[in-house]
Design goal:
The structure is a homodimer. In chain A, about 35% of the residues lie in helices and about 20% in strands. The longest helix of chain A has 14 residues, at about 170-185. The radius of gyration of chain A is 17 Å and the shape is globular. Chain A has one domain (about 1-215): Rossmann fold (3-Layer(aba) Sandwich), CATH 3.40.50. Chain A is built from 11 helices and 11 strands. By secondary structure, the first copy, chain A, is of the alpha/beta class. In chain A, helix 1 links the parallel strand 1 and strand 2. Chain A has helices at about 10-20, 35-40, 50-55, 65-70, 85-90, 95, 125-135, 150, 170-185, 200-205, 205-215, and strands at about 1-5, 25-30, 60-65, 75, 100-105, 110, 115-120, 140, 165, 190-195, 220-225. An 8-stranded mixed sheet of chain A has the order 3-2-1-4-5-8-9-10, sandwiched between helices. Chain A has a two-stranded antiparallel sheet with strand order 6-7. At the A-B interface, strand 7, strand 10, helix 10, helix 11 and strand 11 of A face strand 7, strand 10, helix 10, helix 11 and strand 11 of B. Strand 11 of chain A pairs antiparallel with strand 11 (about 220-225) of chain B, so a sheet runs across the interface. Chains A, B: Keywords: Oxidoreductase. Chains A, B: This is NAD(P)-binding domain-containing protein.
């Protein structure tokens, strides 16, 4: 499969590297490749400059959002939540139409102080906003409830733990579930919550995730729905 | 200990019965005991009339909110979230002052359709609203992230699963943790998230809880934080 991974941060790099290691053709999308490659300082989260990372991942090409999306069979959104809709607009409606869009972003809002809150929250979600803005795209929200290293290596966390999928298209959710299994997720760990509206619930896990990160002092944890199979 | 349990619904009944079974003196608080006892129909959730329930729990007295709170060492809020602040106003600032208030309520908002949303949400929580309205009360938010039968019998759910506590008073959180252990919770299952501000995170688990309830078709599940101890 040819994947476009939109976003050059830690999540994008981690997903892109995993996809490439599984034999997929991967292009990372960014607003302006020259600007991205010109950066020589670590980003705000302490990740090394993209050019350094790419030197170790020569099989992964960097391209503008539209170029990346145009050549892809499926798209992964790992941009910061506040920039997701602009990034997808830049990718282009026609370049996205009919494709599966795996949305890993969370609409974190840093304007109300730390830890960040969510915007939208409550009666809307970023997943729904994207689906409404791009009705011909098959949006599947998943993986947004954990640290990126766990996304591609669930064995980092001992015991059973859960990855949620939300989306309106059953076929797209089945394809994404297959991808998750290829990442190392047992099929029994994947919970299909229902339509893209259920992305509200998974995005609203972020506030407690952020507080657990603070309280536990590490990010190698994940939510598990205990008893999910009982009586099901 | 003498407990006042505010609220006559399924959560209040379940908590009250458990406390009484552990030898505590329990009074259930309601707005108007005569009205509550006069009901002969099941409530909106299908629970039998309170009078029927009380006939099987003769050791548990029903009283007006203020009467219940005045005679208690500690108070448990199990009222519907939208009615929690009015119920606590009726209980009376002086009757609550200095006491531990275990807040199990969630601010479910049924005005935006089903499933209910939350109000407040995002940058405030019901737990914080209660703490602000009653600054002399030691509010501990806990148990609000699961079905009431699991609250008092965690063995209903196989495997490890988690109960969160949030609150500004360490002594109150220690006392509540001891109570949780007496309910059957392993101390290792209790995660102290921090101040009452962290109640935002646990209240925001309700949206995914409600969708899991729909998706799984039963309520005998609970959240577990897998990997919580790793590296801690």
């Amino acid at each position: 499969m040819r994947y476009a991974v939109l976003g050059t941060g830690a999540v994008g790099r981690t997903i892109a590297a995993k996809l490439a290691s599984l034999g997929h053709e991967v292009v990372i999308g960014t607003r302006d490749p020259e600007t991205t490659l010109a950066r020589t300082e670590p980003d705000g989260y302490g990740n090394p400059p993209f050019a350094d990372w790419q030197a170790a991942h020569a099989d992964i090409r960097l391209a503008a959002f539209a170029d990346a999306a145009a050549g892809a069979d499926a798209v992964v959104n790992t941009t910061a939540g506040a920039g997701s809709l602009p990034a997808l607009e830049a990718a282009g409606t026609a370049n996205l139409a009919g494709k599966v869009l795996i949305d890993i972003a969370n609409p974190l809002d840093f304007s109300q102080g730390m830890p960040p809150s969510l915007n939208p929250v409550g009666t809307d979600s970023l997943g729904e906003q994207i689906q409404r803005a791009f009705p011909e795209v098959k949006v599947v929200k998943t993986l947004n409830t954990m640290n990126c290293e766990i996304m591609v290596d669930p064995s980092r966390v001992a015991g059973d733990h859960t990855v949620f999928v939300s989306g309106d298209d059953s076929g797209a959710k089945a394809a994404v579930t297959e991808l998750l299994v290829s990442f190392g997720w047992p099929a029994s760990s994947v919970i299909d919550l229902g339509s893209i509206e259920t992305a509200r619930g998974t995005e609203m896990l972020l506030p407690i995730w952020l507080r657990l990160w603070g309280s536990l002092g590490h990010a190698d944890f994940n939510f598990h729905v205990a008893g999910a199979r009982t009586g099901a």
